[in-house]
Every structure is written in structure tokens, then in C-alpha cells.
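Dear support,

I submitted the protein below through the web form. The confirmation email said the job was done, but the results page showed an empty box. After a refresh the structure appeared. I'm attaching both so you can tell me whether what I see now is the final result or a partial one.
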Amino acid sequence: MGEERERTRAEILVAVDEAEASLARGEGRIITQQSMRDLAGEVKQRGRDRLRQSNPPPRNGASACTGGRSRTRRHLVYIAKESHSIEIADRVVDSITARFFLLATYPHVGRRRDEDLRPGLRSFPVGEYVIIYRLEGEDAPILHVIRGSREVEALFTH
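What the results page shows now:
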């Protein structure tokens, strides 16, 4: 269990470092209700496009049932494939982006991860997912979203 815990922790921290570098380059987005609706729409569209690419339509012309860089898009594709429903995947994306807005409004609501991840990091659960973020004054830059089914909490409890 210790080796798995360290591997998962390392994966999370690599993703956090990539997000921090992206923010340092000015690639972040200000969190407002509208910007989160826009983000959800973009993620959904890119996820649908990726799903179509991985499931090309049949050659007979019948329509196929469809439910980058962002792991959230991969989650959307995974959910759509597993649930056979793009509507379910859309609801998950909406739920996650709604929590982004909640964290922007109440940045101290998440759990401190100073001991098990890195000082200054926090986490907040969303269904089967966990949002990793940090505090920056009264702002809460979102750094990573991971599947909670990886039992993240269990990996970090001693």
C-alpha cells in the first residue's frame, strides 16, 4: 500500500506542477458563474468530439450513439462510454464546474492537504471526483481533478 500511495501522490503532484506552470504563463481563467458555464460547454464539446473520434460512425450511414490536454475531457469520455449516456457525462461536468464556482466563493471550504500532498494544497470532493486546489489570497486556483474511485482519501490516511 505504501508504494501505491507514493505513486498516486507523485502523479497528483506532477499534475499540480503542470497546472501551476500553466497559471504562471497566464493560462488560467477567472471563475465566475458565466465562465464556468462556458468552461463546461467547452469541455463537453471537446469530449464529444473526442468520443466521436474514438467511435467513428458506422460505414452504412447510420448514426452512432455517442454519449487533449484536459483530464476532465478524458473523464467525460470515460463516463459517456461507461454509462452509455452523454447526458450523464454532461451532468458530471456541470457538477464539477459548479463546485469550481463554490470554491471561488468559499475558498476555505476544502480540506487542507498540507500533510499528505503539499503545504498549501486543498481538496474538495464532487461525487466520485476530487478537486485539488490552493489558496491564493481569497482566490482558489483549481489545479487538478482526479477520480475519487481511485480511493484518494484512503491512500492518504495513515
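Response: this is the final, complete result; the empty box was a page-load delay. The radius of gyration is 17 Å.
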